[in-house]
């Protein structure tokens, strides 16, 4: 059970790093919809796409480990 806690912390830190690496135009104006860049429907390419998939995988792993930790 201690191993699950360590894995959960490692996944949580990794998830935070991946999310923070996804810079979306920056600035506070982007938080309120005032980005004004016009590329709302732009497709993800290269590193941005890999970070997006890594976020999904880490989120699912974190959820699964959390459930396993509750059950045990």
Observed structural traits:
mainly alpha, 72 residues, 0% strand, 62% helix, elongated
Layout: helices, strands, pairs:
Blueprint: H1 2-21, H2 47-71
Description:
The chain has 72 residues and is mainly alpha-helical. It has one domain. The protein is 62% helix and 0% strand. The protein has 2 helices and no strands. The chain has helices at 2-21, 47-71. The radius of gyration is 16 Å and the shape is elongated.
What number of structural domains do the residues give? 1
Distance between the termini: 7 Å
Shape: elongated
Share in helix? 55-70%
Strand content: under 5%
Largest sheet, strands/sense/barrel: none
Q: Determine the structural class based on helices, strands and strand pairing.
A: mainly alpha
Radius of gyration: 16 Å
Oligomeric assembly: single chain
Total count of strands:
0
- Summed up, the helix count is 2
Average pLDDT level: 82
| SSE series | HH
Contiguous low-pLDDT stretches (5 residues minimum) are: none
């Amino acid at each position: 059970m201690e191993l699950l806690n360590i894995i959960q912390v490692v996944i949580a830190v990794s998830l935070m790093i991946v999310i923070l690496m996804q810079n979306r135009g920056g600035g506070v104006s982007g938080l309120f919809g005032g980005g004004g860049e016009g590329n709302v429907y732009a497709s993800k390419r290269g590193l941005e796409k890999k970070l997006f998939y890594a976020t999904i995988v880490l989120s699912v792993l974190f959820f699964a480990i959390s459930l396993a930790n509750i059950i045990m």
